[in-house]
Specification:
The chain contains 15 helices and 5 strands. By secondary structure, it is an alpha/beta fold.
């Protein structure tokens, strides 16, 4: 956890982050470490083994005072918080860095959707760009949350085709194929994974299709297909809370998870939401568009003429 935090929130190199993290027994040990002790980390023989620059010492000191890591949270909860902040900060940085040159508004969409003003052109394209980035990052984010839900959960070997594998204390394996929501599978996918599940059951393992959110009572095409095609579908699926609680072995885990996510987002965005940041970005890029191509209908026409 600490190595991940030092790498992603303090900007240490992976090697230096791992090395520094190894000197602390727990979170309290890290938070209470004095600056002079961190400057002079030594091996058992008394040799200096890790040299931090003055800039790194300052960044480390500021991070310790930031309140991002809390001794009142477990290591797992702190880890989840770091993962959440890293994801949120990445989206915030992406939105704030967007400019007109990154958007390249499509002239065909402009005319087909009747986008007659710079604000209409830019606002749609800003939202499209932001959505693409968030969706791309979301899969990795959810995967990280799932893997850190328990020490018994890890990514499944790539050659297996499964996403996760959970190993119980007695060595029993549970294989999981993860889908985002309860309507993300078509008939061919359900048939394929029904066969894969049966193969694992024959080998003596357990296997499930897991959905990160949703309920069994949700009426979707995918739920309907699972009922028709997957034998004992209720026993072979984990939906919403069931998935998170199964992985963590904590019946209240999903509630704790959302609270950690909420607080972590607040630490990055404060009183704002990402939606407000996107609106601010659209306003800023619209001004950029007007400065380059002009305002109103003519400004949009000038833009189209410049690229087509």
């Amino acid at each position: 956890m600490l190595a991940y935090a030092l790498k992603n929130e303090v900007d240490f190199t992976p090697k230096k982050a791992r090395s520094l993290a190894s000197y602390f027994a727990d979170i309290t040990d890290f938070l209470e470490a004095k600056e002079e002790n961190i400057k002079n980390l030594k091996s058992i023989s008394g040799k200096n083994v890790l040299k931090l620059t003055d800039e790194e010492i300052i960044k480390l000191s500021l991070y310790k005072k930031s309140g991002f890591l809390s001794a009142e949270l477990t290591v797992a909860e702190n880890y989840l918080a770091v993962i959440s902040r890293v994801f949120t900060q990445k989206q915030l940085d992406m939105v704030r860095s967007l400019s007109l040159k990154h958007l390249n508004p499509n002239p065909f969409l402009i005319r087909a959707l009747n986008l007659d003003t710079p604000d209409e052109v830019v606002r749609l394209n800003v939202y499209m760009a932001a959505t693409r980035s968030i969706v791309t990052s979301m899969g990795f984010f959810i995967e990280d949350l799932l893997v850190t839900s328990s020490d018994t959960v890890e990514k499944a070997p790539k050659k297996s085709g499964w996403d996760l594998v959970k190993t119980s204390g007695d060595g029993e394996k549970s294989w999981l194929q993860i889908k985002s929501g309860p309507n993300n599978m078509d008939k061919d996918q359900v048939v394929y994974w029904a066969e894969k599940i049966q193969d694992k059951v024959k080998e003596g393992d357990k296997a499930y299709i897991g959905f990160t959110y949703g309920k069994r009572t949700t009426r979707t095409v995918t739920i309907g297909l699972l009922k028709q095609i997957l034998p004992d579908w209720e026993m072979q699926t984990l939906i919403g809370k069931e998935l998170w609680n199964f992985l963590s072995e904590d019946p209240d885990y999903s509630s704790k998870l959302f609270e950690v996510l909420r607080k972590s987002a607040h630490q990055v965005l404060h009183q704002n939401s990402l939606s407000e940041e996107i609106d601010s970005c659209a306003t800023r890029v619209t001004d950029e568009f007007i400065q380059e191509f002009g305002d109103g209908v003519q400004g949009v026409s000038n833009y189209i003429n410049s690229i087509f």
